Prior knowledge:
Layout: E1 2-6, E2 19-22, E3 32-42, H1 44-52, E4 61-62, E5 67-74, E6 86-89, E7 102-106, E8 110-112, H2 119-123, H3 126-139, E9 152-156, H4 161-173, E10 177-181, H5 185-194, E11 198-200, H6 206-212, E12 218-223, H7 227-237, E13 238-246, E14 265-268, H8 273-277, H9 284-297, E15 305-311, H10 314-325, E16 332-336
Parallel strand pairs: 9-10, 9-12, 10-11, 12-13, 13-14, 15-16
Antiparallel strand pairs: 1-2, 1-4, 3-5, 3-7, 3-16, 5-6, 6-8
Amino acid sequence: MKAIGIYEAQSTDHPEVFHEVELPVPSASGRDLLIKVRAVGVNPVDTKVRKSVTDRLEEIKVLGWDAVGVVEVVGSEVSLFEVGDEVYYAGSITRSGCNSEYHLVDERIVGRKPQSLSDLEAAAMPLTTITAWEALFERLLISSSGESEGQSIVIIGGAGGVGSIAIQLAKQLAKLKVIATASRKDTVDWCKQMGADECINHHEDLVAQLKSLGHETVDYVLCLNSTDSHWDAIAQMIKPQGKICTIVENSHPLDQSVLKNKSTTHVWELMFTKAMYETDDMQSQHDLLNQAADLFDQGILKTTFTQEIGVLSVENLTKAHAQLESGSTIGKVAMTVS
């Protein structure tokens, strides 16, 4: 099978940042599904993993953690899917990625593909949907059935992949007052299309802007961008006994003492945790992807796919990584797999 990956960390302007190789088609066993991949999404984690390789690898490392495809073979312990099922999923960071013609994935983190979405529209959604869903409903403990209606949240980085779906979930399911951050007219417009009530600029004083909207503090903060630079503002914006969730690793120690007087909760979200450790609730990702598929099909949620890069190739994958590293991407980019 064709696969595209890396042997070492290279910048996107290097002529050999990616390599195309032929690999054996993997065999499905246990709870694994063998997927014939039809489309893949590209995420910031792909670029981070690419740049994290320190020495030249002996074997190629295939990246990619967002896919749509068809079940070709099922392992002996599979019970959730059958051959021929159309699926979407993000996969596991500890296994080979999906930038290939065939891919192995544990059925417990796979969902039914939304029938109303094209392959590209669906391939853009799994990783960001899982991240936003878990951050809002499992980490911040916000009600997904509207019991938290009227409470407020600031979503830092609203126009990116996770922010775009987090705004929708916070507004459509949780019924929150959603204040997203965006710094350009096109990103502000996008956040409001996704359902944000208000937008503030994360390059300016967040606390002052929040107060200008009539909010001294908010019940929740979901930080999707630059935890280090926004930490002090987050501590000021959060209500006493409020909750903060961050998904971006910090480069410097975070001063937790600024949260003490408010008895504030700070939690992390990494959507790979359940698959990485095979936690007892690992199958919850299968369940939430199926719930999300129903919401897409009902028109309650909409895809955040905004840009087709083309067919998976060395050239197009390089373009996709460069696009994400520019920091100007709105929504999600995806590509088909021939």
